[in-house]
Design a protein that fits this description.
Layout (H helix, E strand, L loop, with lengths): L5 E10 L5 E9 L2 E2 L7 E8 L5 E6 L2 H23 L2 E4 L2 E4 L1 H6 L7
Antiparallel strand pairs: 1-2, 1-6, 2-4, 3-4, 4-5, 6-7
Length: 110
C-alpha cells in the first residue's frame, strides 16, 4: 500500500462456483494522522485480488480507524462472496464463507 507499511494481512484462495481459484489478500495498513490539520486518523486497507482500490478509512484516533478498516475488509469480502458466488480456502480448510475466514480460529487439534 503506497508509502504505508502493512501491519496485518491474511492470504487465502477464493473459489468460484466453477471451481476456479485465485489468490486474495486482506491487508491492513498502519494508521496515521490525517495530514489535514482538522482531520483525524486514517487507516488504509485493501482486498487484493478482489479490488484494485486501497480504501482510506477515517477514525477519531488510530484505534477507531483500524477497527473501522477491519470492518470494511469484512464487508467487502462478504459482498464479493455473495456477488460472485465465492467460497474460500484458508488454513487448510476449504468451502469457508467470508464470515468463517474472518472469525475462524486456526487452532484445531492443538
Amino acid at each position: 500500500m503506497k508509502n504505508n507499511p502493512v501491519i496485518a494481512s491474511r492470504r487465502l484462495e477464493a473459489v468460484t462456483r466453477e471451481g476456479e481459484t485465485f489468490p486474495v489478500t486482506l491487508q491492513l495498513g498502519a494508521p496515521y494522522p490525517d495530514p489535514d490539520p482538522a482531520g483525524d486518523w486514517i487507516c488504509p486497507c485493501r482486498l487484493e485480488g478482489l479490488s484494485e482500490t486501497t480504501y482510506e478509512i477515517h477514525g477519531v484516533d488510530g484505534i477507531q480507524a483500524l477497527a473501522l478498516a477491519a470492518e470494511v475488509l469484512g464487508s467487502g469480502l462478504t459482498e464479493a462472496a455473495q456477488e460472485r458466488g465465492l467460497t474460500f480456502t484458508w488454513g487448510g480448510e476449504s468451502g469457508l464463507t467470508a464470515a468463517e475466514v474472518l472469525l475462524h480460529s486456526n487452532t484445531a487439534g492443538r
